[in-house]
Amino acid sequence: MTIKGVLSMDVKNTLSELISFENNSNLSLREIRKFEKLILVMLKDYVTKQGKTFKSEYRPPNKKIRYDGYAPDGFDDFEGKTVIEIKIFRFGGHSFNIVYDMIGRISMLDDVDNVILILIGAGKFELPKDVINRLNFKLSIWDINKITEISNKNPDLFNQTYAQLNTLIIKDTITEGIKDTNSDEKRETLIELLHNEYNNDNIVLFLGAGVSMDAGIASWDKLLSSLFVELIKKELINNGIEISISEQTKIVEEMLNQNGTSPLLQARFLRKGFEDNFEKNISDILYENVKGSSKLLEEIGQMCIPNRGKIGVQAIVNYNFDDLIEKTLNKLRIPFHSIYGEGINANSNEIGIYHVHGFLPQSKDQYEDLGKSLLVFSEEGYHKLMVEPYHWANITQLNYMINNTCVFIGLSMTDPNMRRLLEIAARKRDDLNEECKHYAIMKRFKITNTKLSKAINKFESVNDLLQEAFFKELGVNILWIDDYKEIPNLLKKIKGQNFA
What we know:
The protein is an alpha/beta fold.
């Protein structure tokens, strides 16, 4: 049952239905965030009516922690600085390590008098007495009954908030973007977290077109345009008609317009036009101006060299058709195995390179059964992946998205199937309350003008936060960059080089 579906019920029934175990497992991250927002609004109303201050999503100065709620002067019989943390469990509350970790982090700060844990869907939870005795603050645990009691003190506000949750969350994001925030500090915190994941041998790299372009591989637009030119030239030559370069360009533009703005639709049109020679034409254009390597490829290769006593990168999921990653790892003498179809597996000492959208290597004679590769170039390929949930490419991606920390490099993050899998992975994970598990390196949206107004600068900040909020629902953090040339040094930091 979704939040929208229980609006007509009273407070107690609404909250009870929302967190019931049989429904909990179907809650999306978006609905979880809404539920947290609802609790915080009701708590703020409850505390401020006592003449006390309440702050939501509070980050203490110079601290790498953020509290769901904070009452600096306490409330009820809580005297002094009081922290509120909300934890919502979907699968019966068997992830209490999150609670222990959170208590440990707060204990290290030495500036909190009370901590209230609001545990929803967790069942009965008690800390051992010897642990409680060692805490430097008073710990209280609330369940759904206490939230019901507080909400019932102002049912009109409860219903009003319920009806406006989407708007409230967006307004909060905009307000946060308008405020002065230290984006550099946030970025360094994310890099540190990602560095720790690398040290824990938990990283899987997801690579897109941006990884190969610096090495001379044709971009998607260039590939489409060149295929259109080849198709046109072929048909005109067959009919004894010569055509100039400028005329070719004009025809390409018109054909692109006639076939709509969807690149998948354009690709579908092209595939039918080339018939049996389609993959050969793609390969020829793909490698036409290839240089062989780039700083980014070399740094990805360095990430795949494990630090002493470690594994390093667990696997590479490659959305590209090319074999530049293979050539890079081969040059560095890193064992790998290219996987492009069902039944192909890597050994324990090899890095698996999963070509989930197809594989067109330069040296085809070095690979067996290339016919197993599904070339996801047009609508047909995407439809095949969308309607076959147990396709090996989907299973591979989903497995890594659920169990590992994935780093997305050179991807626009607009692939519909990839986002669908991320959302499924977010629903499957028990630990909804942990920080976002995955990381996407993305270039900031910038309005190109040397004299930007304060309003435009704030708009850019708000846009960044709205993007972050969107991807957070998919379990993805954004590591912002201003220039793609920053990525190699960023990867060095993640690995541990030049890392303080």
